[in-house]
Amino acid sequence: MKQQDLAIDLLRAFTTVAETGSFTTAGDILGRTQSAISQQIRKLEDIVGKNLFNRTSRAVVLSTDGELLLAHAYAIIARNDEALRRLTAPPIEGRLRLGVTEDFIPRQLPVLLSRFGKTHPQVQLELMTGLSTMLVEKLNAGDLDLVIAKRDAQPQAGRVIWREKLVWIASPEYKPDSNGTLPLVALPPPCSYRRVMLDVLRAAQRSWRITCTAHSIMGLQAAVVGNLGLSVLGRSFLGPDLVEAPASLGLPDMPDTEIAVFGEESARVELADCLVTFVTDALEGLTVNGRHLPMEIVGQICACKTLL
Predict the structure, then answer these.
(1) By residue range, what is the domain housing residue 66?
(2) Is residue 109 part of a domain?
(3) Residue 6: CA count within 13 A, CB half-sphere
(4) What pLDDT does 302 receive?
(5) What percent of the chain has pLDDT over 90?
(6) Which of 50, 140, 74, 111 is nearest to 293 (CA)?
């Protein structure tokens, strides 16, 4: 049997009747007669094989099956309208100097930015990565147009777009010191990871020593993978070579970190909105029940959201 499709005009009639509780009012809104709306609803009911409304002489209310269809109908209409809006809008073009902190979804970001470039080929994206404080300084100096960085780089500014749990990271081969002192890998001050890590250890009255000072996130990761000590990063850094420190160490719980967008108010509005919307749409699909999705699934989500 051939699969039937749910036509947008039928769904639009259905949602309008559901909202107004009246075939006549729905017809007035959609510019159709009451009988035309009734025919559309009957056609939709024939397609799904269910009665979508309970009709009485006084009211038209959704049936149980109608309630089930309603959420899907809104979603389908929204995707249809957004697809048409995106496809008929003039192409966005121009140059955007973007700074992105090294600790923002490191495993996913290259794929997302590559997909953004393919989706918006007329946007010349100039990317700079680094530590959050340096990037915000570059933004304030006029060397960057937009920055995605940790909120604490400039706490009174920026719009938060991502929150992530900080975790203790270790090499899979890590073995604790016999004297109980924690060997730590840290970035130099004023790094917020260093500050938070040492603050929670002092509060927990745990002994520690800095065994390695790295000057980049990549260097910090390499030192931890090389088993020079423990450190603190966002959960998205975990992988085969970087694991969460074992619970047997009894390490204190870590807070969340916040990633914000800085510079939206002064960047070219259409370019900033385009990039930030793309990234935030993608971020919505990065986790399910707090768990990070595999990159290939994230790519599919981004592709779908880009088209829609």
Answers:
(1) 8-88
(2) yes
(3) 18
(4) 41
(5) 46
(6) 111
Higher pLDDT: 85 or 45? It is 45
Residues 31 and 103 in one domain: no
Residue 197: name the closest of 177, 218, 182 by CA.
182
Among positive and negative, which fits the CA dihedral 215, 183, 232, 174? positive
Structure tokens at 98: 């973007």
The answer to whether 86 and 119 have CB atoms below 8 angstroms apart is no
- Any domain includes 140: yes
pLDDT, tens digit (0-9, with 9 covering 90-100), for 245-263: 999 999 999 999 888 999 8
Cα–Cα dist 308/287, whole Å: 20
* Residue 74 resides in a domain: yes
177 and 289 in a common domain = no
CA distance 127 to 113: 9
Has residue 128 been placed in a domain?
yes
Q: Are residues 158 and 277 in the same domain?
A: yes
- Residues 186 and 219 sit within 8 Å (Cβ to Cβ): no
Question: What digits encode the pLDDT tens for the residues 166-193?
Answer: 999 999 999 998 888 999 999 998 888 9
Token pair for 97: 């100097």
Contacts of 209 (CB under 8 A, 6+ apart): 181, 182, 183, 184
Residue 219, classed as helix, strand or coil, is: helix
What pLDDT digit, counting tens, does each position of 199-221 carry? Answer: 999 999 999 999 999 988 889 99
Residue 36 corresponds to which tokens in the numbers above? 């035309």
Q: Do residues 36 and 180 share a domain?
A: no
The angle at the Cα of 274, spanning 121 to 296, to the nearest 5 degrees, equals 70
